[in-house]
Amino acid sequence: MKFTTKSRYALNALIELHLMEIDGPVKVSKIAEMQSIEITYLEQLFRKLRIAGLIDSTRGRNGGYFFAKDPTKISVKDIMIAVEEDLDATSCSGASDCSDGKKCRTHTLWASLNTVVVNYLEKITLDTLVESHDDHYINVVNLR
């Protein structure tokens, strides 16, 4: 499981979109400026998020991006799956043959860790991140 800047940038950009969307669709250039993300990189991420059905866009003078799905229903897992190649902590991507046709000695450890992390990310919604923005941590007790 490797969390890259794709996930971090996508999460921050969608939080920004959530905060700015009140006034209608938001231009990707505005989000890129607010988050100090290169616009071409953010456009690539937004293309993936749009393909995943999380956001959509409209053209024209008042065009921009908006949520295609209710932010209270978008999990961090949804966002990360949309922009990352995979969320698998095992080097074999879950296949039973890690190497030489058999599971490695630590396969169960990594598979279990993967399950815990993915389940955790599934419980945190974009709305939760926006609400906890001023907090220093997300209350994980309420996520169980």
Brief write-up:
With 144 residues, this protein is mainly alpha-helical. The protein is 47% helix and 6% strand.
Mind explaining what this structure looks like?
By secondary structure, this protein is mainly alpha-helical. It has one domain: Arc Repressor Mutant, subunit A (Orthogonal Bundle). It contains 6 helices and 2 strands. It has a two-stranded antiparallel sheet with strand order 1-2. A hairpin with a 5-residue loop joins β1 and β2. α1 (5-20) crosses α4. The longest helix has 17 residues, at 107-123. The relative contact order is 0.15.
Give me the strand/helix succession. HHHEEHHH
Helix/strand-derived category reads mainly alpha
List low-confidence stretches: none
Number of helical regions: 6
Rg (C-alpha, Å)? 17 Å
Approximately how much helix is present in the residues?
40-55%
Total tally of structural domains = 1
Q: In percent terms, what proportion of residues is strand?
A: 5-15%
Strand arrangement in the largest pleated sheet: 1-2
Task: Assign the CATH superfamily.
Answer: Winged helix-like DNA-binding domain superfamily/Winged helix DNA-binding domain
Which helices and strands appear, and what pairs or packs with what?
Elements (H helix, E strand, L loop, with lengths): L4 H16 L7 H8 L3 H13 L3 E4 L5 E4 L8 H8 L23 H17 L2 H6 L13
Antiparallel strand pairs: 1-2
Helix pairs in contact: 1-2, 1-3, 1-4, 2-3
Protein traits:
mainly alpha; Arc Repressor Mutant, subunit A; elongated
